[in-house]
Design a protein that fits this description.
alpha/beta; 232 residues; single chain; Rossmann fold; Arc Repressor Mutant, subunit A; 4-stranded antiparallel sheet; 8 helices
Length: 232
């Protein structure tokens, strides 16, 4: 069945790129609303419900990083796929740290783009329908609501954070390799050289560990990867 009623918001200021994306999304049966600025996109996000935000970083006025930051500050868990001509690792990390769920560098294959769109929509629906609560130490994670309660207070989780936590929880006590995490969560090749994963684990430890420098729950297994344990 085609996703005829799924609404996607595209924020892209380059007409040729926007036209190609719209054509391909609509050919797949999606309903697409297009904005050429973040300011217009904010109005649309307030007025309508969307299943996915496809967001260019380099925009006139407010850039994509800032729009994503504002969206997460409002408590929105809308999946965000960032598009950019920038290819350096720092920009990718910035986008993910601001709450983006995936990141695609221009020029990109439209086939890959559509696969990522479908993957984000599929993951979002799965989290909404099947995610249980999970408790460890002083922490309680509600995956369905994308919310965590920790010793430091309450945290709104991004879609990407939920996916990482789901993977750790589903394999409690087992070592997950870097390659497996990169491929399963970020859609990267297992042998990709990147600090994205390491920085992400650091963030999880700041959320949930009493002493992030001596992690109890999110452990590094030297030379093999990472492991989640509930602790004592």
């Amino acid at each position: 069945m085609r996703d005829a009623q799924i609404r996607i918001l595209l924020v892209e200021d380059e007409p040729n790129i926007a036209g190609g994306i719209i054509f391909n999304l609509e050919a797949e049966g999606y309903l697409v609303t297009h904005c050429s600025s973040a300011e217009t996109a904010q109005v649309e996000l307030t007025a309508h419900e969307f299943a996915l935000l496809v967001l260019d970083i380099m925009l006139p006025g407010i850039d994509g990083f800032e729009l994503c930051r504002r969206l997460r500050a409002m408590g929105s868990d809308l999946p965000v796929l960032m598009l950019t001509a920038r290819g350096c690792e720092d920009d990718r990390i910035t986008g993910l740290s601001e709450g983006a769920d995936d990141y695609l560098t221009k020029p990109f294959s439209l086939k890959e783009f559509l696969l990522r769109v479908k993957a984000l929509l599929r993951r979002s629906r799965r989290v909404q329908t099947t995610a249980p609560d999970y408790n460890f130490g002083p922490n309680r994670v509600d995956l369905a609501e994308r919310r965590a309660t920790t010793a430091a207070g309450e945290i709104e989780l991004t879609e990407l954070e939920v996916r990482v936590l789901q993977l750790f929880f589903s394999r409690e006590g087992k070592v997950i390799s870097r390659g497996d995490l990169l491929q399963s969560v970020w859609g990267m090749a297992p042998d990709t050289e990147t600090r994205t994963l390491d920085n992400f684990i650091v963030r999880l430890r700041k959320y949930f560990e009493e002493d992030p420098a001596r992690p109890v729950y999110f452990q590094t297994v030297r030379g093999r990867g990472y492991r989640f344990v509930r602790g004592e």
